[in-house]
Amino acid sequence: MQQREQWTSKIGFILAAAGSAIGLGAIWKFPYETGTHGGSVFILLFIISTLAIGLPVLLAEFVIGRRGQADAVTSFKKLAPGHPWFLIGWSGFFFSFIILSFYSVVGGWILSYLFRSLLFQLSGLGDDAYGNLFTSVIANPWEVLIAQAAFMLLTIWIVQGGIKDGIERASKFMMPALLIFLLILMVRSLTLDGALEGVRFMFVPDWSFLTFETALVALGQAFFSLSVGVSGMITYASYLSKSESLGRSAISVAALNIGVSIMAGLIIFPAVFALGYTPDAGPGLVFIILPAIFDQLFFGQVLIILFFILLLFATLTSSISMLEIVVSIGVKDRYAQRQRVAWIYGSLIFLVGIPSALSFGVLSEPYAFGFTFFDFADILTSRIGLPLGAFFISLFAGYIMTTQQKEEELDGASVWVNLWNILIRYAAPIAIATVFIQGIAAVLVQ
């Protein structure tokens, strides 16, 4: 029987895990949430929430995954035989499937914009025209479906190659390239006349934004940006050897996520302020405001290409982790079936995502509980699926796993295990439940 694969290096695992976390949440959602919630105060609360809540849950997934040395469903069965905790793994399978079905739609938008930038079609349009372009792109049924299919083909092609030759190899290329592109764009943005206003916005606190709402949004951003709650990190950690330090790996992933989020802000906000835009543009920041900004910069047509390549890499590193969750459960110990399973599930995810892809055009009427298919899939996963998954993962790590099991996985450092136990038993479940309740309430009042 073919043996279960492992990461060939610690850096390969960290880059893959960081890539799973550093997706649209860090480069798209973080800047617009920062812009609409006051800048520096939001960033401060985001960092605190990441370290106090997100990191402990991330470490919990690492501990469960490496201890189980199997897919998420099998890992829970091994650690709690005869009990229904394995349903957490199946919920991760279901919600990863749904997330990728609409996440791939956004990945398709990015491919469409990258293609246009390569043809130099994102210049000289005028401010209003960029908004009209985005509306026409996402409403065009053939374009969005072809682009979504292309994005899914890229994702499947990487995952079907396995851990060593597929995910690790791709992550070792895409993550360093992503960081290099981030650095180039950040330096260019910071050298603009008037860029200092954007830096002040990010790092000089305006305490009037220190509200309960800002704290909740920052907590939600920290929680979701680490890609916890769907067993993705359980799956990745299951391929990790026993010789690697889980604590240092988790800290590295969290630090990279915070660093990339701040770098994304240092690309966007200095340019926004330098060129006279407002920072609270919301979700349209990437597809509407940024092309208009780059159009006004020297060498802007090349910079916009770099930006959408960067965004594509960030989106792909997250999409491959979501497909890997599904594939690993589908494969179990039949490792020779990986390619076939990857293509079958990837194709099914594309088909399920078609209504989401058409939600801004021919299927724009509300169909599910007053929402379009795209919005319903987003709400179902981000406000229900992920928090519930993370809540039960924190309870499992805090109350079901034994102290001996946790100390063995965390190198026997009892003082750190005790601190982590406090956070994972009490702080994390309370914080996650608060985000969950707030998210449900926001849906009900719409």
TrEMBL record:
Superkingdom as given in the UniProt entry: Bacteria
Compartment(s): Membrane
Key word Cytoplasm present: no
Record field: transmembrane: 12-30, 42-64, 85-115, 144-163, 175-196, 216-239, 251-278, 298-331, 343-364, 384-402, 423-445
InterPro entries the UniProt entry points to: Na/ntran_symport (IPR000175), SNS_sf (IPR037272), YocR/YhdH-like (IPR047218)
A Gene Ontology cellular-component term: membrane
Signal sequence segment: none
UniProt KW Transport keyword: yes
Keyword field: Membrane, Transmembrane, Transmembrane helix, Transport
CDD domains, per database record: SLC6sbd_Tyt1-Like (cd10336)
Membrane topology value: Multi-pass membrane protein
Family annotation (Pfam families): SNF
PANTHER family (alphabetical): TRANSPORTER
Protein name: Sodium-dependent transporter
Organism expressing this protein natively: Planococcus lenghuensis
